[in-house]
Amino acid sequence: MVTTGIERVTIPYLYQQKEHKEKITVLTAYDYPMAKILDESGVDIILVGDSVGMAVLGYETTLPVTMEAMIHHTRAVARARKRAMVVGDMPFLSFHLSLSDSILNAGRFIKEAGADAVKLEGSSPERLKLVEALVEAEIPVMGHVGLTPQSIRRIGGFKVQGTEEEKAEEIYRGALALERSGAFAVVLESVPEELAKEISASLKIPTIGIGAGPDCDGQVLVINDMLGLSAGYMPKFVKKYAELTEVISKAVNNYMLDVRQGRFPDDQHSYHLKKEIAGPLLKKLRKKFSRQNE
Ligand code: KIV
Q1: Which of 27, 38, 145, 161 has the most crowded Cβ, counting Cβ within 10 A?
Q2: 30 vs 62, 71, 73, 79, 223, CA distance in Å?
């Protein structure tokens, strides 16, 4: 259960966490029951990531995820939240439009879905202009640099970024520029820990790492990955805290066995007619619906 005394995680609270060197905890969630568990456990930020595309919807990348899907999942998460900050992830091509259309899309996360902030990938001059405009429109923005999965076609794979000077400089410059543009936090994804440490020390806003080592101000993981619910390739940075696929498979197999062998449903899981009415009622029904009357 929640140990910190605050009622709701706010941006000033996150700044305070950084100042006091208290780590910020972030996990993704895409539905009501999971968001409720995370919120009640005291997770600071619930990110409704476009990772929903890969974790839940069965896509190979995050690219096909739509605004409608993001709004749908963010609404479910926001309904469950009491304390955590809810951040909605802007999907591919929802913020690469005109400034006004991009602001309207971001605004949908706040107005329609109940999020507190949006996250968007990249730090190009266009992105920075958009971040400024969103902040001006009172829409808090979390930035995201390093490995940006929406750039997967250009990058050529889910691999570590910033191991060479030019890219390391680009990531560093991008994080600083996002801060200058008004972002309240920045995700550093798949970057060497030495670089993430340096960036975290020079930014005033919190850094949230995923595959960026222990010196970021907070950490984020995709919930399905850390619970052992994701199939296929798993990045080096994922630590599994549970093996839920095994737990679920075992439960499903036991269910099938019970059904096939007549052990389920048993008396405990069945409804009954009162003894005194069962006999006469069934007799009456049998007579009424007997196939011989057809
Ligand atoms: O979509 C997502 O879940 C993310 C996190 C991995 C940072 O962007």
Answers
A1: 145
A2: 14, 10, 5, 11, 9
Structural domains in the chain, sorted by start? 11-243 (3.20.20.60), 248-292 (no CATH)
Which residue ranges have their beta carbon within 6 Å of ligand 1? 28, 47, 49-51, 89, 144, 187, 189, 210, 220, 222
130-164 tens-digit pLDDT: 999 999 999 999 999 999 999 999 999 999 999 99
- pTM of the full structure: 0.95
Helix, strand, coil share of the chain (percent; to 5): 45, 10, 40
- Residues 215-224 as b/e (b if ≥16 CB within 10 A, e otherwise) read bbbbbbbbbb
> pLDDT of 59-97, one tens digit each?
999 999 999 999 999 999 999 999 999 999 999 999 999
The residues annotated with a catalytic role in the active site are: 189
In percent, the amount of the chain with pLDDT more than 90 equals: 95
Protein residue closest via CA to atom 5 of ligand 1: 49
- Tens of pLDDT, residue by residue over 23-32, are 999 999 999 9
Give the residue, by CA position, lying nearest to ligand 1 atom 1: 49
Task: Report d(CA 61, CA 207) in Å as an integer.
Answer: 24
Query: At residue 60, what is the residue type?
Result: E
Q: Which atom of ligand 1 is nearest to the CA of 51?
A: 1
* β-pair type (207-210, 85-89): unpaired
Provide mean pLDDT across the span 4-20: 94
Closest approach atom of ligand 1 to CA 50? 1
Q: Tokens at residue 49, please?
A: 């990531």
pLDDT band at 54 (very low <50, low <70, confident <90, very high): very high
